[in-house]
Every structure is written in C-alpha cells, then in structure tokens.
Amino acid sequence: MELDPKEMTPVINRIKRARGQLDGVLRMLADGRDCEDVVTQLAAVSRALDRAGFAIVATGLQQCLTNGDDIDSVDVKKMEKLFLSLA
Q1: Nearest to residue 3, comparing CAs of 71, 65, 56?
Q2: Rounded to whole angstroms, how far apart are CA atoms 16 and 21?
Q3: For the chain, give me the number of helices (H) and strands (E)?
Q4: Of 12, 41, 18, nearest in space to 29 by CA
Q5: pLDDT in tens, 29-69
Q6: Residues 6 or more apart from 53 whose CB is under 8 A from it?
Q7: So where are the chain's domains?
Q8: Alpha helices (runs of H) in 1-75, residue ranges in sequence order
Q9: What is the third-level CATH fold of 9-85?
Q10: Could you give the angle at the alpha carbon of 10 between the alpha carbons of 80 and 5, nearest 5°?
C-alpha cells in the first residue's frame, strides 16, 4: 500500500514540528537546562512522533478499505504489527 502524499501533508508537518522540538531538546541539553524541562520537551517529541505513526497506520488502513479493497485483502497481521510497533 502506497500512501498518498497529499493525505500525508498533516503527518509531514507534525514530523517537521517534532524535528524542531528535538533540536530544541538538544539545545537545552547543551545549555545545561533543568532536567524537568528537558524531559517534558522530550516527552512532547515522543508523543508527536507516536501520533504521526498512528496517523500513517490509520490512513493506510482507511485507504485499503475505501479504494475498493475488502477487509479480506487487507493483511490484518501486518497492520496489527505496524500498529503495535508504535506501542
């Protein structure tokens, strides 16, 4: 299943924001910032990436179902593995 780049625009934007947040975490570490602040920002990056991953899996599954493919043609085990890899 190939993802439509137009549908991935929000996901791409989310990942770009996460990249910016991660750059901020690196700067915070280099500046010797407070542990709590660093961990809070790192958790935000992690959540953003998790949400991007879930959005990709959900879009892929939706695409399979709306493009005329029936549930029998969807590799459920593969989709489950992708979903659980984000857990």
Answers
A1: 56
A2: 9
A3: 3, 0
A4: 41
A5: 999 999 999 999 999 999 999 999 999 888 877 777 676 55
A6: 85, 86
A7: 9-85
A8: 9-30, 35-66
A9: Methane Monooxygenase Hydroxylase; Chain G, domain 1 (1.20.58)
A10: 75
Distance CA 71, CA 42 (A): 37
pLDDT attached to residue 80: 79
- How far is it, in rounded angstroms, from Cα 2 to Cα 9? 14
Reading the block at residue 58, the tokens are 């959900």
The answer to whether 44 touches 75, Cβ cutoff 8 Å, is: no
**Residue 63, token pair as written in the block:** 């695409």
Dist CA 86 CA 60 (whole Å): 15
How many Å apart are CA 81 and CA 33, to the nearest integer? 38
Rounded Cα distance, 35 and 16, in Å: 24
